[in-house]
Amino acid sequence: MQVTETLNEGLKRGYTITVSAAELDAKVQEKLVEAQPEIEIKGFRKGKVPLAILRKQFGQRLLGDAMQDAIDGAMRDHFEATGHRPAVQPDVKMTNEDWKEGDDVVVAMTYEALPDIPEVDLGSVTLERLVVKAEDEAVQDALKNLAETAQSFDDKDGAAEEGDQVVIDFLGKVDGEAFDGGAAEDYPLVLGSNSFIPGFETQLVGAKAGDELNVNVTFPEEYGAQNLAGKDAVFECKVKAVKAPKAAEINDDLAKQFGAESLDALKTQIAERLEAEYKGAARAVMKRALLDQLDDLVKFDLPPSLVEAEAQQIAHQLWHEENPEVQGHNHGEIEVKDEHKTLAERRVRLGLLLAEVGRKAEVEVTDAEMTQAVLAQARQYPGQERAFFEFVQKNAAVQQQLRAPIFEDKVVDHIVEGANVTDKEVSKDDLQKAVEALDQM
């Protein structure tokens, strides 16, 4: 087998791989010997069929497999010898298209090699970690929100207002005919909750207990039930009670509703939760600062194919964000602009750098971490969790999509451990401004 270099330009590489006819024949013979013990042909005992007969009957069928094995082996040996790692799947083409049995096999292989990535002095990275304490005011605000969610409703005299609860019987009709799911009795509806069809709740504002009225609405075009989508409907409503909201008292009883032993214990839980949220936001700010430093610290050649693919993906994503009404890919070609290419270069550079740092540090995503990631995604498909698990198990690309962000975060943590990090205590507002600034960069 012979490998000859034909291209060496930047990260682009090209080679001609020649597999001699003799080597190919030896591969076929090897496969015949391997298969011989399991083959049974009339007139011969199992495993005793002469190789000459096997070659006559199965040789042509095994020739393609032998050719592929030989080429794969040559590529594998080449990458082990050179240390090259292709940025994307190598392009491999047979050059002697008029090949016939007995000829040498000549294959052209081209690819872009991943660049040599320089070492990063993690000790030279300097970071600031924002620290926010849960202030009493924030804890009290959270308690008030909890009290509102635990609110009750008391009967009131007078007309219903936004935020009040009306208890109603209703019967919905389209074209004068009642439809399935369009009726209920003693239904408690909070006005302003937007839990009913648009326009329904606003027509009940001002109603009083004992009132009977018709509510006229139009089902949205995208309504789930196709027989109702876009249709005009009339709901015959009887208001049986009007109730005003009453926030729960902030005391030990409220705390017990939320699983805490006492109000003080609930305050502690709230403070811990708030500080965990602050910590997550502060980490995002610090991660951006780290990536900015790494982008300035390390420069190296980038595989053009990776940059081009990333730029196209960025352009496509941004176009859809600007045109949310367009679903799928039924649109014209999207122009890749210079700003897309610049962002793509940053993402590819940082992606390759973090991958190399992680590889050298032997960072791995554990099975338990992958399971947690799959569980988190599966929750988005209630009732179809098992099907989602099976889909992930069979789809390597989806597995990689779930693994990539976990790996990146673990590499970031590894870099932070070796960096010079100082804590800076700031207010919640200062942290919020820092987080908002991330979207403006």
How would you describe the overall organization of this protein?
The longest helix is centred in the middle third of the chain and has 35 residues, at 263-297. The model has no long low-confidence stretch (mean pLDDT 89). The chain has helices at 21-35, 51-82, 136-149, 252-257, 263-297, 304-322, 338-360, 367-378, 385-394, 396-418, 428-440, and strands at 2-9, 12-19, 91-94, 105-112, 126-131, 152-155, 165-174, 177-190, 212-218, 232-246, 420-425. It has 441 residues and is of the alpha+beta class. Helix 3 packs across helix 5 (263-297), helix 6 (304-322) packs across helix 7 (338-360) and helix 7 crosses helix 10. Strands 6, 7, 8, 9 and 10 form a five-stranded antiparallel sheet that branches. Strands 1-2-4-3 form a four-stranded antiparallel sheet. It has eleven helices and eleven strands. The chain is extended and about 100 Å long.
